Amino acid sequence: MASRRRMLLKVIILGDSGVGKTSLMNQKFSNQYKATIGADFLTKEVQFEDRIFTLQIWDTAGQERFQSLGVAFYRGADCCVLVYDVNVMKSFDNLNNWREEFLIQASPPDPENFPFVVLGNKIDVDGGNSRVVSEKKAKAWCASKGNIPYFETSAKEGFNVEAAFECIAKNALKNEPEEEL
């Protein structure tokens, strides 16, 4: 049995336009490839527990006109990251829509246990004085959806981005069958 396996983990980042999805990705990843179909696609090789895997991050641009592309983007995802701006209530309120849309489009085999991670981004804005979504409210929403892991981040300052992506990678690994690429 080979001790080192190469794995591909597909992660989808969803949320309203302007919440900082692309900034979060650029903070953590490099080698950006901009597709012409409304998505950014980035990869990073990571070693974890004597396995090498490629984290493949898909950012579907957030605009509603690209939502019809969902099936192709979402299919085969190992984890879905929902991002909102802590300073914009509508972006938080729309998390339900993004989550439901993902589950419909991706149709994972076990939707109740599919790994999601929620990021409340832009906590640095205006020294936190513009904030309209409390951490308590966000954590309550995550708890009501099956205890989704929650992180407050600042893509601009790089705050908590590393920890969030480590959690994302671990959650993606949970659902990934051991296959050699």
Automatic annotation (TrEMBL):
PROSITE patterns: RAB (PS51419), RAS (PS51421). It is found in: Endomembrane system. It comes from the Eukaryota. CDD domains: Rab7. It is a lipid-anchor. Belongs to the small GTPase superfamily. Rab family. PANTHER family: RAB FAMILY (PTHR47981), RAS-RELATED PROTEIN RAB-7A (PTHR47981:SF20). This is Ras-related protein Rab7. It comes from Penstemon davidsonii.
